[in-house]
Design goal:
The complex is a heterodimer of chains A (278) and B (166).
Chain A (H helix, E strand, L loop, with lengths): L2 H21 L4 H78 L5 E9 L7 E4 L12 E3 L4 E8 L4 E5 L6 E6 L4 E6 L6 E7 L9 E4 L11 E9 L6 E8 L8 E5 L17
Antiparallel strand pairs in A: 1-2, 1-12, 2-5, 3-4, 3-12, 4-5, 6-7, 6-9, 7-8, 8-11, 9-10, 10-11
Chain B lengths: L5 H14 L13 H10 L7 H15 L4 H21 L4 H26 L6 H34 L2 H4 L1
Helix pairs in contact in B: 1-3, 2-3, 2-4, 2-5, 2-6, 3-4, 4-5, 5-6
Classes of the chains: A alpha+beta (278), B mainly alpha (166).
């Protein structure tokens, strides 16, 4: 055995002895001290490396994340706009479907749908403006309805728009028929937009919930269009007629699409009215 | 030449009044944007076209509104006259003039509307009109007066640049 082989053998024996001592638990304190030092160094190196890595890579990530965030925000806002548009279309479709149902169930009249595009600038008047005019064969006096009931009648027409006087207008007077009581009356508008009934005979029994329809008298409106229901009745013995408040069938604050009855021509009965005697 | 801005601006005011402002109600009243725009314009120092704007506004509102046209003609003419008189006398306090002109103009327009519609047979009760329409409209008009005045002042500076009158 030459000296090199002897040296190698001794090294192996020493290392093997140390391993044997370590495995046998005889090197516990020294092993723990060594390992803790090693772990400490490893931790220090690792943490510094991560710090350096963050320092060099984080700014690039923030820029890319910001760009990505902006893209996503743009996409979200586009989708939200689409959702709103689709909701509006669904809403319009529902209204139109109800109006189509109404026109099918009332085939005796012909209708033209119109969108409500504005209201009268003056708070004294209850008028709406619709986007159909004389170009669409809309004429003054034509009744305007929704699937819920009577809205009013056309008051003025230009080529592509018309102004409609609502039945809530203070100047509006509609001849009506109380279905259950089988009597005639007149429906009047008011400043507040409430509708009331007047000229109800004292001999008639009117109850809350009675349906109110147009009577067709006077030729201003076709008959049997729903106006609303009686809410309360005011009957005083010293008065000639009873009055009643009305819950209109139509929600006048949410008018979006209406139907103009185009085959109805109002009758002007003014020449038939008796002249006042001199 | 820049006075042509009256056409789109007054058109926009009438459209906004019909489509938006008339939906924002306080009781039964709402603000009168065209009136405030006209008042604020007439109160600007170097403005010479307030009468033209009033006529244009009357024509535009005549198409849209069911009110008799005489109300707008008399009302807006009186408002412009009052605003210009006020502007000459209290020119040091333009906001005070704006509030005074808005207050007076609103009351005038409301009284004219009430009187004319009553004459035409509309069954208005004065108390109802005052409580439900006039006072709420007055309040809303006063609230709108400051922003509209500020906008119209900037517009007047644009239409009548300083070098033209210095």
């Amino acid at each position: 055995m030459n000296s090199r082989s002897l040296q190698t053998t001794i090294i192996f024996l020493v290392v093997g002895g140390i391993l044997a001592l370590a495995l046998g638990g005889f090197l516990g304190p020294a092993s723990r001290g060594f390992s803790s030092t090693l772990v400490g160094v490893q931790t220090w190196v690792s943490s510094r490396f991560i710090g350096l890595q963050d320092f060099f890579t984080a700014p690039r990530d923030i820029v890319s994340l910001r760009n990505r965030n902006a893209e996503l925000e743009t996409t979200v806002s586009q989708l939200q706009a689409q959702v709103i548009e689709l909701q509006q279309r669904v809403n319009e479709t529902e209204i139109l479907a109800a109006l189509v149902d109404f026109s099918r169930s009332n085939p005796e009249s012909t209708y033209k749908a119109a969108a409500v595009i504005g209201r009268d600038p003056s708070p004294f008047l209850h008028y709406i403006i619709i986007n159909r005019g004389s170009n669409d064969d809309i004429r003054r006096g034509m009744p305007v309805v929704t699937n819920q009931g009577l809205v009013g009648r056309v008051d003025a027409v230009i080529a592509d728009a018309a102004r409609v006087q609502l039945i809530t207008d203070p100047s509006s007077v509609v001849n009506v028929y109380l279905q259950n009581a089988e009597t005639n009356a007149v429906a009047l508008g008011s400043v507040t937009g409430d509708v009331s009934l007047d000229l109800i005979s004292q001999n008639t029994t009117v109850e809350a919930g009675d349906l109110i329809l147009t009577s067709g008298l006077g030729g201003g409106y076709p008959s049997d269009l729903l106006i609303g229901q009686v809410v309360t009745i005011r009957s005083l013995e010293f008065q000639l007629f009873q009055q009643a408040t009305v819950q209109p069938a139509v929600d006048f604050t949410r008018l979006e699409i209406v139907l103009v009855i185009t085959n109805f021509r109002p009758v002007d009965i003014t020449p038939l009215e008796p002249l006042p005697s001199p | 030449m820049r006075n042509i801005v009256a056409f789109p601006l007054l058109g926009l005011a009438v459209i906004l009044q019909s489509a938006v402002v008339s939906q924002v109600k306080l009781l039964s009243g709402y603000a009168d944007l065209p009136l405030i725009v006209l008042t604020a314009w007439a109160l600007q120092k170097h403005v010479k076209s307030a009468w033209h704007w009033a006529i244009l506004l009357c024509v535009m509102l005549g198409f849209v509104s069911g009110l008799p046209w005489v109300i707008q003609v008399v009302g807006y003419a009186a408002v412009v006259y009052f605003a210009q008189t006020l502007q000459r006398r209290v020119w040091q306090a333009p906001l005070l003039a704006m509030f005074s002109a808005t207050f007076t103009g609103t009351l005038l327009m409301q009284l004219l509307s009430f009187g004319t519609l009553r004459l035409l047979g509309a069954p208005f009760a004065f108390g109802d009109v005052m409580g439900l329409i006039t006072l709420p409209s007055l309040l809303l008009n006063m609230l709108l007066a400051i922003p509209v005045y500020t906008f119209m002042r900037d517009l007047a500076h644009w239409v009548y640049p300083a070098e033209e009158y210095e």
